[in-house]
Amino acid sequence: MAAPSEEEGAVGRRYHQRSTAMLDVPFLPFCAFLGTLGLLCVAMVGSWCQHWRGGFSLDGSSRTFNWHPVLMVTGLVVLYGAAALVYRIPYTWSGPKLPWKVLHGSLALGAFILTVLGLLAVFYFHNSQGTPNMYSLHSWMGLGTVLLFSCQWAAGFGAFLLPWAPTWLRVLYKPIHVFFGSTILLLSVASCVSGINEKLFFSLKNGTMQYKLLPAEAVFANTLGLLILIFGVLVVAALARPSWKRPDSDSPDSRQPLLAAER
Amino acid sequence: MAAPSEEEGAVGRRYHQRSTAMLDVPFLPFCAFLGTLGLLCVAMVGSWCQHWRGGFSLDGSSRTFNWHPVLMVTGLVVLYGAAALVYRIPYTWSGPKLPWKVLHGSLALGAFILTVLGLLAVFYFHNSQGTPNMYSLHSWMGLGTVLLFSCQWAAGFGAFLLPWAPTWLRVLYKPIHVFFGSTILLLSVASCVSGINEKLFFSLKNGTMQYKLLPAEAVFANTLGLLILIFGVLVVAALARPSWKRPDSDSPDSRQPLLAAER
Question: Within a domain: residue A13?
């Protein structure tokens, strides 16, 4: 096959530029849409537990369990997604990177704290009811996701915010951190979806309220599950989009730790 | 902040080269590992249905249902994953792209046919038993995934194999096709995991076989679910790895359709 002529190459580049321009979506409106979708997921999971599942308490009953889905969706999906998107905000691209690193780490820490509280809620409920913990595939996947998240946070803090990590280690670890950032979010989403599915089979058993008769609660919670899926996929799409990435990711400032080491 | 000196820039590049070299994993051994993992998933889902769920038949009983998990894991996860990885095989990088396009499309078509047979199995089982279809979140997500997959296959065939799509449309659509390629695989994996979780709650109800007592079947099927998750994440990681991508993705040959249009 003949090599492409210069003219063919120019045509290809022109097509590429034109099609890239056609696909251009401004980040901030997309981000506002994502924020609205995330808040809708939080509002829906709260409404589901409040309206259909008896509300919230700390007495070890199923009303204690209800904190579990609310805290997991809020922490491990929505707040985690917000933390992941920090470096895609164009304001973060100029000036020192350190404040944005601290914001990224703090949002992720907030997400982690909500996640741990969400785990405590379900363990406390199980122990109060004499139900075994950690037997379903949902629980195995969910706990695996939280363990990965804790490693991700600790390794990110150690590599990017503390001063002792050598530069080669930061450069080596960064693509791993970025990859696991998206992966953990998708595992969180998969955990939430399997958890909602499981909860509906547990709760909707009797008479006209059977899950298979698709009562209003089932439609509502299934829709919530799909919205969580869409949120997760859109956040990962935003993270993967080349034109939304911080352009100067290799500047010396990007390696600035929280505490400067003595030199 | 001072701009990086030339020396600092050189140090950064050296670190980057060294750390990239440290992360280098050869594609073919990784691919062999992925193939083994995929075959293990197929063998395990088959063994689960054969050994614990009564085997296979076409009589509308739960033995008809058993085709559903086997066909979905084989088609929508493992064969789909193989189709997605075709362009990462270094042999495909030189010479005409068309045979690889045909292989990619054929493997994806095979995956789609197994998937449709898997859907038929569960619909036939439900209809034979008088159980409603499409009520659970698993079914909503699963059918959504299959619909996305059918659009992906049809759009890919129309844009990349038929001669009528203009070049600008191919250039515009390619990143969308690539993004949905990974997304559909992860949705498939999430669907499989929620389905295995659901099936275990349905099947393990009585006496010492209750799911919450974690009998051998539950450990086996939970492990299968985790292996499916790991397979999906590793395929997506392989697809995302820059050094494993076909380098000349913009060559004129990459736009060669199956049937050449009259010029």
Answer: no
